[in-house]
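Lab notebook, design round three. We kept the backbone fixed and only want residue identities now. Task for the bench partner: fill in a sequence for the structure below.
Input structure tokens:
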């Protein structure tokens, strides 16, 4: 890590209200937020994390008030009444932004919105503080509306990949690309081994079933790890493919996941949507594990011919055909790609530079 800066900054880091920011992480967004908070703190900055209840208390935690507001019978009977989760998140971010509008200037130098919610963007003009928002997903109606509702949106936008910056170009044309970095001290090189690995949330858009199909066609055992985010999908599409070499090993801690990924001959990455970044790709490369994936979203930005292979989206047979090439790639080249392209140092320094640019 680089030396702490002489003038530390006070950063309010807004996280997702849906899942706690703690191990084992619910997904890449939570892992990224945890890593960023730690990296900024190690550089001497004062970080307070606003996140879901149950998040890691070592991060200077302020728990978002994620609870259902008390609504009248008339309000609950209204035909436009959203579901309880939507209302709880809306209530939490509304409370937070009103609090920051009231006394945020006294407590912080900059607000970094790392959530996917629209209110931190829509209410940014109410704050007497600079607001940075990282774009982690493709455009949504709520977020686009939040930007366009303001004649001059005061938010400074960053995007996690060139692919994301392009997707948001019409609404946030000035978004700067700051790619998600990973801690290569933790994600250390492994020896490889006699199996393939797939990691991530077990939801339809991550395509674990296609990884199982490809591994079977290629004749390789597969170990899958991650939280079951959609139990119906898991039961219908993944469980029938388990056995005969395919194994689900559960939702692992990072240390266990490092050992699993580092012990694999290659990692399969099978997005069924345009992946905004692909943190699992960076993690695999840092472990020296080459990647065989679908050419969707930002995967083509991260992988080079020296460390991975890309198949047409959704084509498990084509993916299987590339496994033999992928497992023969140089593990040192994969590690070097992670060190140069997925650097935690670079990410933290780039965010710090933006904060300093925006603060007097």
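Proposed sequence:
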């Amino acid at each position: 890590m680089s030396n702490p800066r002489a003038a530390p900054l006070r950063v309010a880091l807004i996280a997702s209200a849906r899942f706690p920011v703690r191990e084992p992480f619910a997904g890449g967004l939570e892992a990224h937020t945890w890593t960023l908070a730690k990296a900024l703190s190690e550089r001497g900055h004062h970080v307070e994390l606003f996140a879901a209840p149950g998040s890691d208390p070592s991060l200077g935690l302020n728990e978002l008030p994620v609870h259902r507001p008390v609504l009248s019978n008339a309000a609950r009977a209204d035909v436009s009444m959203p579901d309880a989760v939507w209302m709880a998140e809306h209530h939490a971010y509304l409370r937070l932004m009103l609090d920051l509008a009231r006394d945020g200037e006294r407590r912080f130098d900059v607000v970094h919105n790392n959530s996917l919610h629209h209110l931190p963007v829509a209410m940014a003009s109410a704050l007497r503080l600079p607001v940075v928002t990282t774009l982690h997903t493709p455009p949504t109606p709520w977020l686009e509306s939040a930007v366009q509702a303001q004649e001059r949106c005061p938010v400074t936008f960053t995007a996690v990949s060139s692919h994301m910056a392009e997707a948001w170009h019409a609404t946030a044309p000035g978004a700067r690309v700051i790619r998600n970095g990973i801690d290569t001290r933790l994600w250390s090189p492994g020896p490889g081994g006699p199996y393939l690995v797939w990691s991530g949330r077990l939801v339809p858009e991550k395509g674990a079933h296609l990884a199982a199909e490809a591994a079977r066609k290629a004749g390789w055992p597969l170990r899958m790890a991650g939280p079951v985010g959609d139990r119906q999908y898991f039961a219908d599409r993944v469980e029938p493919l388990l056995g005969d070499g395919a194994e689900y090993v559960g939702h692992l801690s990072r240390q266990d996941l490092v050992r699993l990924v580092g012990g694999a001959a290659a990692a399969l990455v099978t997005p069924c949507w345009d992946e905004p970044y692909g943190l699992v790709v960076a993690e695999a490369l840092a472990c020296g594990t080459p990647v065989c994936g679908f050419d969707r979203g930002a995967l083509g930005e991260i992988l080079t011919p020296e460390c991975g292979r890309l198949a047409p989206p959704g084509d498990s047979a084509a993916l299987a055909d590339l496994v033999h090439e992928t497992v023969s790639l140089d593990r040192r080249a994969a590690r070097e790609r992670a060190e140069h392209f997925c650097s935690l140092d670079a990410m933290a320094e780039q965010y710090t530079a933006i904060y300093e640019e925006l603060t007097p």
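Keep this in mind before ordering anything: The longest helix spans residues 84-107.
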